[in-house]
Design brief:
Blueprint: H1 5-52, E1 55-58, E2 61-64, H2 67-72, E3 83-89, E4 94-97, H3 110-113, E5 119-123, E6 126-137, E7 140-150, H4 152-187, H5 189-200, H6 218-267, H7 272-302, E8 311-314, H8 315-330, E9 334-338, E10 345-348, H9 350-366, E11 374-381, E12 384-391, H10 412-416, H11 425-436, E13 439-445, E14 449-455
Parallel strand pairs: 9-11
Antiparallel strand pairs: 1-2, 3-4, 3-7, 5-6, 6-7, 8-10, 11-12, 12-14, 13-14
Helix pairs in contact: 1-4, 6-7, 7-11, 8-9, 9-11
The structure holds adenosine-5'-diphosphate (ADP).
The site of adenosine-5'-diphosphate (ADP) has 21 residues, from helix 9 and helix 11.
């Protein structure tokens, strides 16, 4: 059977408390026992001292200081709390005893007499504490005085105390368990509310939040964490929706252009020049769609961690090669500048780094005029290897700097100037960089140019 959380808490607390209470009850009983026994032993000691001065053994005969007093004393009567007395010789043979002993004898233990120590024994049906002292006459040891006091009342008191504690114990435990169960139930009530609220949140009402009851305790922290999680989920779902709608839009635009071109072509017979022109326009729409699809695939592919394998690369040689390659492809002058005096070795995925750099260098080419300089720089700063791609082109306005890495974001001027692109290049760069632990910093000024700086993780 699976116990509810409140029952488990109450059970554990009760178990610990039961051990503590058991120890406390045990100590109470022990202290009461020791106190009662000590008190009887003290009285017994006083009685012994009193009788030591009244009874003497002289050459085997008993003498009393006040014989008549002795005969009238309490030990001749049956009392509620009687004192029993017996006089024995050195071998323990009884010489005289108080009448309240009737046919019984006290116990003879010469070894205990020296220590004036009391012990418990039974006389007939009743329990007594006994003490024994030597009787000495003119320095000669003649016998022993045995004295006992009833222990019945004290035993009754101790037994009552033990019974009360034993009856109280399960009662206290049961009430403790029930109280703790109730309190534990009360304390986890806010958690129940959180559970029922979160159970009601689905994709359709992801904007709802769990109400914050006690902001400063752990439950408040839990509520805040759940709400933050919901916030992240909602943002990611919105991004996903936005991405799907942007992607559909990006594909629909060239498709409509393609359809329009073909409709115009089919309407009536055209000259061969017109056919060539329209078919070229259709090709450019197809090229745009395949570029978008290629980049969408690139975004999806790297999510599966394809580029996670890293190998050692010498950065300077690698950058020289890639710069030359893109420069010849784009037919542009791209200067390479190395600010380090020794080779720079990094651990990176070559394909991923190549994709990042080709996106950034192609952007530098796209967003700057043919006469404007493009530079690729490398070096180390505080032993962190870096790469910079600088252009003196159109630059990015400050309000767009935070958005350029969002999928499908393109600056209006780029669209207006018909610069080819899909708005996915920097999103791919961001994802790849994140996967490889590369930090990207952008500095740009509208009309003056941009610098994209990559800081590679130290290998
Ligand atoms: P694309 O270049 O295909 O439009 P990107 O994701 O590569 O998409 O870039 C997003 C936007 O950021 C671009 O549309 C452009 O407005 C801006 N941008 C990126 N690189 C540069 C740059 N080097 N100079 C100026 N603007 C840039």
């Amino acid at each position: 059977m699976k116990l509810a959380y409140k029952e488990r808490i109450a059970g554990r607390l009760t178990l610990v408390t039961s051990l503590i209470i058991l120890a406390v009850f045990g100590i109470i009983y022990l202290v009461a026992n020791v106190t009662v026994v000590n008190s009887i032993d003290r009285e017994l000691g006083l009685e012994t001292d009193k009788h030591r001065n009244q009874i003497f053994l002289v050459n085997g005969e008993i003498r009393f200081l006040h014989k008549d007093e002795w005969q009238e004393m309490e030990h001749s009567q049956i009392q509620l709390n009687p004192i029993f007395i017996e006089i024995v010789d050195l071998e323990g043979n009884s010489m005289d005893r108080s009448p309240n002993l009737r046919t019984n004898h006290l116990s003879f233990s010469p070894e205990k007499s020296a220590r004036k120590e009391a012990w418990t024994l039974r006389i007939g049906a009743s329990e007594v504490r006994q003490m024994q002292i030597p009787l000495v006459n003119a320095g000669k040891h003649e016998g022993y005085l045995l004295l006992a006091k009833s222990f019945e009342d004290s035993r009754e008191l101790l037994d009552n105390l033990r019974n009360v504690l034993l009856i109280l114990y399960p009662g206290v435990l049961l009430s403790l368990f029930l109280t703790m169960r109730y309190l534990a139930g009360k304390s986890i009530e806010p958690i129940r509310q959180i559970i029922s609220k979160t159970n009601r949140i689905t994709q359709s009402n992801l904007n709802e939040r769990v109400p914050l009851v006690e902001p400063n305790d752990e439950i408040g922290q839990l509520t805040r964490s759940i709400n933050e999680l919901l916030e992240r989920l909602e943002a990611s779902l919105n991004r996903e929706k936005q991405f799907t709608s942007d992607a559909s839009h990006e594909l629909r635009t060239p498709l409509s252009v393609l359809r329009g071109t073909l409709e115009v072509l089919i309407r009536k017979p055209r000259t061969s020049e017109e056919y060539v022109e329209k078919i070229k326009s259709a090709f450019s729409s197809i090229d745009r769609m395949s570029a978008t699809i290629d980049q969408l695939l690139a975004l999806a592919r790297e999510e599966k961690g394809k580029f996670s394998v890293k190998e050692e690369l010498e950065l300077i040689t690698f950058l020289e090669e890639i710069t030359d390659q893109i420069a010849s492809e784009q037919k542009r002058v791209i200067s390479f500048q190395c600010e380090a005096s020794a080779p720079i070795f990094v651990k990176a995925n070559e394909q991923s780094l190549q994709m990042i750099l080709s996106n950034l260098i192609q952007n530098a080419v796209k967003y700057s005029g043919t006469d404007q300089e493009i530079q690729v720089k490398t070096g180390t700063h505080n032993s962190i290897p870096y790469i910079e791609i600088c252009d003196a082109g159109s630059g990015i306005s400050p309000e767009h700097l935070g958005k350029i890495f969002d999928p499908f974001f393109r600056e209006k001027d780029a669209i207006n100037r018909s610069v080819p692109g899909t708005g996915l290049g920097l999103a791919i760069v961001k994802k790849l960089a994140l996967e490889s632990g590369i930090r990207i910093k952008v500095a740009s000024e509208k009309g003056k140019g941009s610098t994209f700086r990559l800081e590679l993780p130290d290998s």
